[in-house]
Amino acid sequence: MRVVPWCFLLIMSCNHVMAQQEDVLRSIEYVSSLSGGCTYTDGYVCAKLPEDDFLTADSERRLVPGAYFEAWEVARRDFASLDDLTSQQKELKHYRIGFTENDRHYIVLFRALLLPRLVNGKPQGVMQVTYGQSTRYRIDKNTLAISDRKFLK
After folding, report:
1. Which of 88, 70, 102, 69 is nearest to 133 (CA)?
2. Most CB contacts within 10 A, which of 3, 52, 131, 144?
3. Closest-CA residue to 61 (of 69, 71, 50, 72)
4. Please, which contacts does 147-152 make with residues 24 or more away whose CB atoms are closer than 8 Å?
5. 67-113: per-residue pLDDT in tens?
6. Which residues pair with 140 in a beta bridge?
7. Contact criterion met (CB below 8 Å) for 10 and 92
């Protein structure tokens, strides 16, 4: 059995991490250069949705109850004020937004898009890394106050 010195393994591990970080940085650079003229999905691919697809039962887009937008205003204001994110990371083009509710709360989800894996400078799939920060809000239905904000991985 061949014994590999621990310092060699550490160097190999560091080189792998550095290569991953470089891939993420290239991906963020690519995402930052996009014009934003479309609705992005994971991997920052433009969604190709028909104009009135919310009218069909199997639609990716749904009609949202108007009351959710009262909760949206509260969540959006708080999200915009977060110190942990840069102004670029707060841009809504980096997120899919979800709404739901339970008996006491409206729930607003900012789900950060997965970065594209770049091959020869072109997106080919996704990385398991986001540019923004997925964040879930629970907003009290009676007071419209934030009951809970949770950062998700």
Report:
1. 88
2. 131
3. 50
4. 147/104, 147/105, 148/105, 149/78, 151/84, 152/111
5. 999 999 999 999 999 999 999 999 999 999 999 999 999 999 999 99
6. 105
7. no
